[in-house]
Amino acid sequence: MFTGYLLLSVPTKYGTGLGLIYAALGVICLGTGLFKGNLQALVGNLYDDPKFSSKRDSAFNIFYMCINIGSMFAPTAGEAVINFVLKKLTILYGRIPALAHKFLRNETIDVNNYLALAQVQDNSVTMNTLHEFSENYVNTLSTSYHYGFVLACVSLVISLIIFITFRKHYKHADFTEKQKIKANNNTILLLN
Question: What is the pLDDT of residues 52-106, one digit of tens each?
Fold first, then answer.
């Protein structure tokens, strides 16, 4: 997942980064598949002991609740990064990207609505300068997306540090099903 987000944080020229985006999304899909399956197995293994098995459902509820809380804050953090970068233009993120793209494709738009949606505080933006403004906006917005993916990479590193730091609390449950079967077979052989 980290590698995929890192690939998405690499700035590219317009139209040349499509292959990189597809590669990044493929790597993120692969990483998410490996992460989710392994983490769920680890949570399940924590409650294999019969004295804790009654708490397994509660553990999975807490596990999924924490994932959903993280999912709730991620878009807010992303929008904060976008607005931080866009403040250079004294504008905020809104429906303006779609309008900027429409304008750059020479489609008809209402200029006053365009500027109001962009919350432009600069009165020097006129119909004559709108093309330059739109290009500048789209380019700055692209840059802010790259910073957003850098934020995702930083978050993953922090998560990994937390995971490794608390390893002593779950080390006893960190094994695969094959390792569990092998350990059970060895126990049976020792008992015989």
Answer: 889 989 989 998 898 888 888 888 888 888 888 877 766 666 656 666 777 777 7
For residue 169, give the DSSP letter: G
Rounded Cα–Cα distance for residues 120 and 126 (Å): 11
Interatomic CA distance for residues 72 and 54, integer angstroms:
29
Angle at 35 between CA 33 and CA 36, to 5 degrees: 70
163, 38 Cβ separation under 8 angstroms: no
Indicate the Cα dihedral angle 44, 46, 49, 54, nearest 10°: -60
3-state secondary structure of 138: helix
For residue 144, pLDDT beyond 70: yes
